[in-house]
Amino acid sequence: MFKTVTGNIRYIKNAFHESKGYTFLIVLLNTLVSCMLALKVLAVGKLIDDAGAFQELGISRITMDACLIIVVYLLEYVFASVQSYLNYKFTIRLNNRMEDRYYSKLSCVKYAVLEDNDKNNLIYQAKDGIGKKFAEGFSRVLDLAGLVVRIGSMFFVILTKNVWTGLLLLVVFCCLLPLYRKIGEDNYEAYAESNKEFRRARSYRLVVSDREYANERQVFGYFPFFNEKWKARYHSAIEKELKASRQNHLKILVITAAVAALTTLLSGVMLPALLNGSITLGVYVVLVTQLYNLVHYMSWNFSYIIDDLSENQLYLNDFDAFMKLDEVSGADSGAEASGDHLEIRVENLSFRYPGCEEYVLKNFSFVFRKGKHYAIVGKNGAGKTTLVKLLLGLYDDYEGKILINGTDLRRLSREEIHNVFSTVFQDYAKYALTVKENVLLDQVDRPEKQQQAEDVLARLGVLGEIRQLRDGMNTYLGKIDQNGVDLSGGQWQKIAIARGAVPDAGVYILDEPSSSLDPISERNLYEIYNRIFKDRTTILITHRLGNTRDQDEILVLDAGSLVEHGHHTVLMEQKSVYYDMYIRQRSWYHEETL
Ligand code: ADP
Q1: Cross-sheet strand order for the sheet of 343-351
Q2: C-beta 353 within 6 A of ligand 1
C-alpha cells in the first residue's frame, strides 16, 4: 500500500512538470484549507471559554471571538474557492497536455507494436479516460495529503491542550497504524482485482458498441455472445468490489467502534482535569470533538481514498508501459531516395513476425527498377502483403537487406520512405472528411494538387458522380456530419486509389485494390490503373492472375519464397507454378472476359 501511495506521488511530479506555478499554488491552498479545521475548532473552543467568563470579559471579547470564527470560515471558503478555480483551469491544461503526449507517442510507435494484441490492449488502456486521469490522480493525492494535514493538525491541537491525552492518543494511533495499513493493503488488493475485471468488461462493451466492429457484429450476430461475456465479467467485478467493500466496511466498523469507545474513555479520563480546573471547558469541548473527528477521518475517508489510489496506480503502470513502447527510429540518411534512378534492391530477405517461429519470407532477392510495372502473385498466405510491409519499413527486424538507391531502408527516416512509396491498402481507411480531403489529406490546400485529384478521379470514372453530390468535392463523407453521405464500396475504393495516385512518389503499391469490385469493373479498373500509372514504377499485389498479363514482370511467391519471375508469356511457357495457378483460375478469366 505504501508503494501505491509513493507511486501516486508521480501524479504530483507530473503536474509540477507541466506547471510549477499552478501546482505550487494548488498544493499550498490545499494545505491551508486542511489546516482550517484545526483553526476552526480552536476558535470555537476560545469562544466557549470566553463565554464561560462572560461577566469578567464583557460582550466585546465575545464579539471578537465570534468575528474570529467568521474570519476563519470565510478564509476557508476563499481558499477553497480559489483552489477549486485553479484546479479547474489546471485540469483543462493538464488534460490537453497529457492527450498531446499520448497521441504524439502513439504517432511514433512502431507498426509491429500496433499489430501485437497485448500491446494494442495497452494502448487502449492508456487512452481510456486519459483526458481526466492525470487531473483526477493529482486531486486524489491532494486529498490524501489534506487528510494527513487534518489528522496531524488535530494531534497538534490536542497535544498543545493536554499533553497526556495527546500522548495517549499517539500510543493508540501507533497501535492502530499497522491495522490501518493491513486494511489498506487488503483494500488495494481487492479493489485492484475488481478494477482489472472492470477493464476486461469494458473491452467487451467496446465490441458491442464501437463502430469498428459494426460490420462483423451484424454479420456474425455476436451481440448476445459478447453481451454475455460482458455481463459475466461485469458481475464478477461488481461481486469482487462488493466483497471488498463489505469486508472493508466491517473491519472499519469494528475499528471505529473500538476507537470511539476509547475516545469516550479518554473523554472520561480528562474529566478530573476539567473538574479541578487544570483544563477549561472550551479546551475540553475542543479535545472531545477533535477526538471524534479523528475517528471519522482515520476510518471512512481513508478507505475511499485508498480505493481511488489503487485504481490510479494501475493506470499509471499502464501509461508507463505505453510510453516505453518501441518507437520508429528517426534516422535521416539524407539520401535522395526518390531520385531519377530509383532502384529497390532486396537481398536475401527473410522474416518472421515477432513472437512467431515460422519464417513468412525466405531468402527473397529481387531488384525493382524505375518505370517498370510489377505484379506479386501467390496464394493467400504466401507472404505478398508481408513483403510490402517490409518494403514500407513497417518492420525492421528482418534478415537480409533492402536497399533504396543503395541506402539501407533502415537508415531512412519516415519522411524519406514516405517519398519513395505511395500505397493503397486492401483495407484502406474511410475518413469522415470531405471527398477532397479524403483524396488529398494534408495536401488539400495546394491548388495544383486539387486539380490533379480531380483528374485522377475523372480517369477513374467517378468524378461525375462526385460532382452530383450536394457539395461536390466538398461533400462530407460518412455519418458523422449531418449532411454527410455514404458511398458505395466501389466509389470508396476509387477514392482510396486516387489518394494513393496523387502523391509524387517513386513507387506506387496497390495491394489487392479491386477486392470490392465485380470482375468486369475490376478489368476496367486495371485498364484505367495502367493508364494512370503508365510511366511510373508500380507494384501490384493480387491473387487474380487475369490482371497480371499487362505487367512487365510477375513475381510468384510460394510459402514465402520467390519461386518464379518474368513476363506472363515467359512464365506460361515455363509451365510451372504460375502456369498451374493460371490454368486453375482460367475458368473465371473466361467469365471475366465475356
Ligand atoms: P498474403 O498477402 O500472401 O496473403 P501475408 O503476407 O498476409 O500473405 O501473410 C503471410 C503469412 O504471415 C500468413 O501465414 C499469415 O498468417 C502470417 N501473418 C500475417 N500477418 C501476421 C502478423 N501480424 N503476425 C503473425 N503472422 C502474420
Answers
A1: 361-369, 343-351, 399-404, 407-408
A2: yes
